From TrEMBL:
Residues of the N-acetyltransferase ESCO acetyl-transferase domain: 221-281
Organism of provenance: Wickerhamomyces ciferrii (strain ATCC 14091 / BCRC 22168 / CBS 111 / JCM 3599 / NBRC 0793 / NRRL Y-1031 F-60-10) (Yeast)
SUPFAM superfamilies attached to this UniProt entry: Acyl-CoA N-acyltransferases (Nat)
One GO biological process term: mitotic sister chromatid cohesion
Name the record gives this protein: N-acetyltransferase ECO1
Annotated region described as Disordered, given as residue ranges: 33-71
Compartment(s) of residence: Nucleus
Domain N-acetyltransferase ESCO zinc-finger, first and last residues per copy: 77-114
Keyword rRNA-binding: no
Family classification: Belongs to the acetyltransferase family. ECO subfamily.
Amino acid sequence: MKSVYKINKTRKNESNITKTPLQDITTIIKNNVDSDSSIPSTPNSSQSQSITSTPQTSPLPTTQQQKNVKIRHATKQSVLSFGIDERKQCQECGMSYLKYVQSDVKSHQKYHQKCLNGRDWNDKWGKKLIEFNQNEYICTLNLNNSSEIKASLELLEIVNQNLNAPDDNEFWLKGTDSGKIFIYVKDKKAVGIVSTEKITKGHWFAIDDGVVINKIDIELLAGINRIYVSKNHRRFGIALKLLKCAQEHMIYGMVIPKHKIGWSQPSFSGGKFAKTFNGVKHKSGKILIPVYT
């Protein structure tokens, strides 16, 4: 049988095609399909389209395009796996970060310095309450200064991360007498902080048992919401100095008795410190500290 299409030898213009009768075309297509085992006898619509399409017009990717897609996919996956495997946790500050991600490394360095050595503090910030020497003092905040507030919040963020506790700053940010912040500054670094709030009652807490005695209410005047000292400045009595300052300056014209000060969410180390500050010995021999919620 003669060819279905008669194409000129130059093939410069594929539109110069002479057609045979429709019946002959049908017969040739059937014969071609039967002779090629790679093409099913009843192709679906996409396969029929690929039969009549040229490489330029085919909607299906070429072999080279498929290879490129696979290569890009593999590269992306290897980067993700690499990042997960290289996560590191600092043993000193506790922060987890990616060793080979520059932004993570910088964030860790900044946090690490604040955690160990304190946060930069401008000598013009705050109102000085107690001065130990020219470069060491305790001050309270000026709530109209956003820089002071930001620096204090950064220190409190470290406390909350160590305690796994939520932010709790509303009571002193309001600018009322419901709470105050005291900052310990040394060599232009804020190395300690205590946040206090006014309260009226609390309960006894048995340190050894970890039990709050809810049946008995006790009268309190002030609560220690958060207290923190940078790691490299601990064991120098800074926390005790902050508490004494809060005793004298939280309520105007009054020194708050120790047994009228309660603790919020004391950690293990915080409980030991509270025990030495205002713990009392029960007749059972157990040590109790005042707490509040």
